[in-house]
Request: fold
Amino acid sequence: MGTASSSATKAARTDLVPDRDPVRHPAVMRHDGSPSHDSGNAPAGAMVAGSNPVSPTESKPPPDRRFCRSAGGFSLFASRLTSISAFVETAADGPMWGRSETIHVVRRDAGQAPPPPGLLPGHTGPYADTEYLRRARQTCAPPACCRHNGGVDPRLVELSRTIDAAELGRRIRNARLAAGMTQPQVAGDEVSAAYLSRIEDGQRRPEVGLLSRMAERMGTTLEALVGTAPDKLHELRLQLDHAELYLVSGQPGRALDLADAVVEASQEINDVALATAALRVRARSLEGIGRLDEAIVLLEDLTDKPRSDAGWLKDLIALSRCYRETGDLLEAIAIGEKASATIEELGLDGLTEAIQLSVTVAAAYHEKGDVGQAVRICMRAIDAAERQGSLVAKASAYWNASIFEADANGATPDALRLAQRALMLFEQADDNRNLAKLRAEMANLHLSMDPPDPRTAVSILDRAEEELVLSGGSAAEAARVHVTRARALLLLGDLQGASDAARLGKDLSPESASLLRACAEAIRGKVAAMRGESEQARARYRESVLALTAAGSDRGAARLWFELAELLAEAGDTQGAMDAYRSAAASSGLGTQAAPALIPRVTAERSS
Reply:
């Protein structure tokens, strides 16, 4: 090309944009190369408002508009802004950044020469060559805001590409109608009303930038258009609230069903926060129905990555508690100890949940037989709770101190005093679940006093059972209340009531709660022995031995082994008694002298 051609090429890259919308004015070529309907019926050479006359022998664009032809035969829609990027609309997919060509256009000075021919599809001329197009594309790089999606959340960008086109169109139409706007008003100067109509019909998918700007014009958000519909989100959150209500009302099975549904729905819509909340409810539900191994797997996932919030600590507490319920005391202890440094780094050590976690670990140490370490942890927890002024943390620490005192020295007045102080704090904090568990422990203390007070214990257990139902206590917690009631009724001479309570306790006990199941079977065996049913008693004791074999080695297991050995000897099963004594000796941290008996020492005469 000559010098003139080079000058024209340079001018073409910096020429002006018209003041008119290319869709709303005639003589503007559409993406298929045909003239608009407004100009199609106009006679050759006719004047169109806002444009220069068009020669009947030469088809060219209006003198104040310049277009660039792309290899795919696209048309470019430019806005009236002083400096913009115009997206090229493809016939198949509509404007999508990364698949379209973009030109940068600026306003020219008045009086500049009209554009040369060759810039529209189907035209020839010096500016229709490939080299010109390449230079134009290089010169007209997209602005940074477009290259980076305008700062749009990457999640929303991905959703805009994956949402069903028909669903997206329906949401856009609903948002437009709710705003009381017409299609041209929403389309603005970027696309035609006809193209917006195709979007609303699900025939086109707009790129995220266009979606965002249309949302702004309609007074809504990009999240509302491509994310989960507000009514659907509300429905899922309501379902999760209902699941939590089922939990606190003692229906973990129904809570699990709802939580599972919310987990599935939230994963489909890629709502991570909702999915995490639903998984927490699912874990609590699994614990509540006794599926502890499944709860542990889920809680391991939830606690895998430390978070600087109390929810992470609550998940750790539940995980340690579940490990303790399954008898894996070493892992229950490790959960808290491995997290302690991270808790300090994240500045969570002053939270109530951090103190509760340490107390949960202390309980695992106690079950393991390391009473000294359990007491030390508990005393530090009491000091921390006093400094923080946390009612629940102080109550938890006093509660465990009461347990340790009773285990070391029996049901002393000090043990009862510590438990009563914890009970008062839990009542102030309106913590029904811990109230129920603490009342069950206080009932145990009354049964272990000298002499025992089973009537007071039964009264306390009545309230504990009500609070467990209200708070959605776990199956293991409910089973423990029933087994304790069986002990109290056995002391009162109510053999049938004791047998029924023990059977209910066994039925509610998770498979992994071996110690509870063993204790329930031993009580049923004791009832049979008191009725003179020796063979039935020995059968129950053997069931207890079978369950206890899976309980591991801890203080509770060692104590029950000793008591089972005595019961088996009374029932005439000498070999079984010897085996039970050997198992007791093999268990660690015995300390059975002052510890409360798991099976009440009751003679047959008392039941008459």
